[in-house]
Design brief:
The protein is α+β, with helices and mostly antiparallel strands. It has 8 helices and 13 strands. Helix 5 crosses helix 8 and helix 6 packs parallel to helix 8. It is globular, with a radius of gyration of 22 Å. The relative contact order is 0.11.
Length: 320
């Protein structure tokens, strides 16, 4: 595996260097009437190279004008980037049948010239990865997977208006940016962690409490209640998927260090509300006869302690 590019490891403000990718298409209905006209929409994903914060924008079509309007909205809310990395047109050539509009936009010389001219006026450099090499864009491919993988399962065949779908995307953006990345300190009394949301607002992202409607049939929910249902369902699916990634040990083929006392961990819980991450500190270890720890004692922020299997905790990837 090659080394990370300099843009990934050089300190910079949030969203100064970003990766850009598109996901979709998604079905969008143009009104709330009984038989509305159904159109297509695309999701533009911007990911920060240094903090991995994610910004989602909904595009009504794939014209150059719509893309520039989407890019301007991103700049207005997240500040002006200095460098933008994106896929080469050839990346979408193999999927031309399903992504015909996306391929045409990326392959159009007029589109490239217009975007390059706009970026040059703003002092922005556009970088295109090598042809047929999506591995060079792993950071935004991972972001697209996080947003799209479960979004398709949550939305399913439901037809949403532009406002509904945009609301779902913004709330999903908040869920993704609330994920814990690393512990703030090794102090046993400190349960705080760092997330991409800290770089955006200076504090962890939170939301107001809502009634759990994720188990109710969508045909019994009101118009905007379906958005709450989709957000809560996305949270249940994605948070489990994210925690599985943190504790991923494929086939135990390599020796990994034991959990250390005072490590900050996330407790796996099936009933956590959106944007709420139950944190704990490891206070005791229970190694087996082979010296490998498979159970630990953890202490919550309220002072309560109990034992947990290591399959039910996730040590944050980086400890300072």
């Amino acid at each position: 595996m090659g080394s990370l590019p300099a843009a990934r490891v050089t300190a910079s403000r949030v969203f100064q260097r970003v990766g850009l990718d598109f996901a979709g298409p998604v079905s969008v209905k143009n009104s709330r009437i009984r038989k509305p006209v159904i159109g297509k929409g695309y999701i533009a994903l911007f990911v920060c190279f240094t903090t991995k914060a994610i910004h989602l924008e909904l595009c009504s079509d794939l014209t150059t004008e719509c893309f520039l309007a989407c890019f301007k909205r991103f700049i207005a809310r997240r500040n002006l980037p200095s460098e933008v990395y994106c896929d080469n047109a050839s990346t979408f050539k193999g999927a031309r049948n399903k992504l015909a509009e996306l391929y045409r936009m990326h392959a159009s010389q007029t589109h490239k010239q217009t975007v390059t001219s706009f970026a040059a006026q703003k002092g922005i450099q556009f970088h295109f990865i090598p042809s047929y090499s999506p591995v060079f864009g792993g950071i935004w491919e991972s972001g697209v997977k996080s947003a799209k993988h479960h979004l398709k399962r949550v939305v399913g065949k439901s037809l949403l208006t532009y406002e509904q779908l945009n609301s779902v995307l913004v709330e999903i953006e908040g869920v993704l940016n609330a994920r814990p990345i690393t512990a703030v300190s090794n102090d046993p009394e400190d349960f705080s962690y760092l997330s991409p949301g800290h770089f955006l607002t200076g504090a962890p992202l939170n939301t107001y409490p809502e009634q759990d409607v994720s188990n109710k049939p969508t045909n019994l929910l009101r118009f905007w209640s379906t958005i709450t249902c989709m957000k809560q369902t996305f949270w249940k699916y994605w948070s489990k998927h994210y925690l599985n990634q943190l504790q991923n040990r494929p086939k135990w083929q390599s020796v990994t260090p034991n959990v250390a006392i005072d490590s900050l961990v996330i407790l796996r819980s099936d009933n956590s509300p959106p944007l709420e991450w139950p944190m704990a500190r490891v206070t005791n270890l229970f190694p087996g006869k082979d010296g490998i720890v498979r159970a630990v004692e953890v202490r919550l922020a309220n002072g309560h302690t109990h034992n947990r299997s290591i399959t039910k905790i996730c040590v944050l990837p980086i400890d300072l």
